[in-house]
Amino acid sequence: MPATLTSEAVPKAAGRGCRYMLCLIAVPRAVSPCLPEPVFLFAIVVLGVSVTLAKHQVYNSVPAATGYSAFTGGLGILAALVGFVALFASSLDGIVTWVLDGLASLAFLAGGLAYAILLRGTDCSDPTTTYNNDLLDGGCISTKQGEVCGYDSLGELNSRCTSAKADTAFMFIDFVVCIAVVACSFFASRSNSSFRGGVV
């Protein structure tokens, strides 16, 4: 015989169904039942691109914005993994996942804005707009011959510029996804409470 859903199981199933549908329409929750899912993959991309940019820093320390973007990618991955565990541990579902999703969304927004500001006015195909850009030039030092930067060729600057702009886009996408996820989860939880309150 098919199992009978209790009054509490129905809204919970609906809430999780909401998360699943978010995943299917590519606006998934960072902590949805689908793994890998777009937001999880986006966070991996952010982390990977940021680490690559940092590893190829030639002079001086890695720009703070690059290090921060790597942190946001790691935080997004953490939120996704905790959310996956929350599917099997109800004690983590709710406030814990909301807080993580909220922090991740703010981190992605801050990282995206920082990159957008630093890349403002740059044209990846025009080295005059990318040379001497802190995110792209690999660091610069002063020598007897003048200032020398880690990257000064069109190809190298174009590649790093394209990567940095992709990083920016993925951080903004992750921000939007996390906001949608928190909203969906919150309203699903309220629906759950209302449903139980209306059952006699």
UniProtKB/TrEMBL annotation:
Species of origin: Rasamsonia emersonii (strain ATCC 16479 / CBS 393.64 / IMI 116815)
Record bears the keyword Transferase: no
InterPro entries: Marvel, NCE102-like
GO cellular component: eisosome; plasma membrane
Listed name of the protein: MARVEL domain-containing protein
Superkingdom of origin organism: Eukaryota
Transmembrane annotation, as ranges: 39-56, 68-89, 95-118, 169-188
Topological relation to the membrane, as annotated: Multi-pass membrane protein
Compartments reported by the entry: Membrane
Pfam family, one: MARVEL
Biological processes annotated in GO: eisosome assembly; protein localization to plasma membrane
Residue span, MARVEL domain: 40-181
Keywords (A to Z) from UniProt: Membrane, Transmembrane, Transmembrane helix
